[in-house]
Write a structure and sequence with these properties.
alpha/beta, Glycerol-3-phosphate (1)-acyltransferase, 2 domains, seven-stranded mixed sheet, 16 helices, 9% strand, globular
């Protein structure tokens, strides 16, 4: 096996049975499942329910010896979770992904777990192998989370390193792994366009990430390396963000006090809220992969932004938020929600939007509005041929 990538790569098929066995013996993992499955009984009867859940899981997972078998077994549960928390998932451009080719899928980033889950959903249902997923080590504090993610084709991005030399070495390894995955293993990669979620709804590509793709092949021209990776812009659009209130609160605290300290377990809460919270409709768009030459990362980042923002699906709520946004762009001709959407669709959106505004403290409301208004401004600036 490719030993140099062992510290970050997903688990291989041969490792699956041993990892599943380890998970079935992990009390923290079984505890979370018990709470999820039996929220009312978990505290009083957890000692009784945990072994039962382990027994059922063992039966359910019997005979699984590969990642593909595991994904097939888990897919109905993923579909059910998605169907319960959305009003439907649509996708466009998935036909651009050819079987037998591998792509570097670079997407906007709004939700920790669901962004790659929705991309997987689109790709899996199109009958194409799911991509390997980049995930920050800051989210893998518990061993069972790391096991679960690496079973599902995730590889680790070391973000919590502080020394410059360690960071450089980690980026170099990551670059080599991404190139190896696409060119040698013919396995696609999903990675977010920037570290951390775009909490203000303003999606932008970090050119440092584009630079990282080239790091392990420095002796080759930048444009050639990018072309060989089939870099593909992906836009993920949520009608409603289940974490929008928490994001508004964080943005408000940052703006008023200059900094924001995450509380213990905040990431876990965001993950749970993101998975189970109501999202309305969700759309995933796959653009054409980049084929033209870009001399540097700045130019390429601008093109990725153009493609990702143009492919974003705007819902009625985005126009409702834009209409009440203090920072509307006077140069832009933006139609009202009433001009674009049917009365019934608009009425439903207005009721949901009012509910969200009422749940948000008045001083935090501008940050809630901004999250939904920014995608409108960005898309109409692109349509008007203006700089972002």
């Amino acid at each position: 096996m490719m030993g140099e990538f062992d510290a970050i790569r997903p688990y291989a098929d041969a490792e699956v049975p041993a990892v599943l066995e380890r998970l079935l013996g992990d009390s923290a993992f079984l505890s979370i499942l018990t709470h999820f499955r039996f929220p009312r009984l978990a505290n009083s009867f957890g000692w009784l329910l945990r072994p039962l859940i382990a027994y059922r899981l063992r039966r359910e997972l019997r005979g699984i010896h590969s990642v593909a078998q595991l994904q097939d077994r888990v897919e109905p549960y993923v579909d059910r979770t998605i169907e319960r928390a959305t009003d439907g998932v649509t996708y466009s451009g998935v036909e651009r992904l050819q079987k037998g080719s591998a792509y570097l899928l670079l997407a906007n980033h709004r939700d920790i777990v669901m962004d790659p889950a929705f991309v997987n959903y689109a790709v899996y249902h199109a009958g194409i192998p799911t991509p390997r997923i980049a995930i920050g080590d800051n989210l893998l504090q518990k061993p069972f989370v790391s096991d679960l993610m690496r079973l599902n084709k995730s590889f680790i991005v070391h973000r919590s390193l502080s020394g410059r030399r360690e960071k450089l070495a980690a980026f170099q390894l990551l670059s080599a792994y991404i190139n190896h995955s696409i060119r040698h293993d013919c396995q696609s990669i999903w990675i977010a366009q920037a570290e951390g979620r775009a909490k203000d709804g303003n999606d932008r590509t970090d050119s440092a990430i584009l630079k990282m793709f080239h790091m392990s092949r420095k002796d080759e021209p930048f444009a050639e390396v990018i072309r060989s990776l089939k870099l593909t812009p992906v836009s993920i659009s949520y009608e409603y963000d289940p974490c929008d209130q928490a994001k508004a609160r964080e943005l408000y605290i940052r703006a008023s006090s200059g900094s924001y300290e995450k509380s213990q377990g905040e990431d876990d809460l965001s993950i749970a809220q993101g998975i189970t919270g109501y999202k309305g409709r969700v759309h995933i768009n796959f653009a054409e992969h980049i084929s033209q030459d870009f001399a540097d990362t700045k130019q390429l980042a601008a093109e990725m932004d153009r493609q990702i923002l143009a492919g974003y699906r705007l819902f009625p709520v985005h126009y409702l938020a834009y209409a009440m946004w203090q920072e509307r762009d006077p140069q832009l001709q933006v139609p009202t929600a009433a001009e674009l959407f049917a009365p019934a669709e608009l009425a439903k959106a207005e009721a949901e939007w009012q509910k969200r505004l009422h749940a948000c403290p008045p001083e935090q409301q501008p940050y809630l509005v901004m999250q939904y208004a920014n995608p409108v401004r960005n898309q109409y600036r692109i349509k008007a041929g203006l700089a972002l």
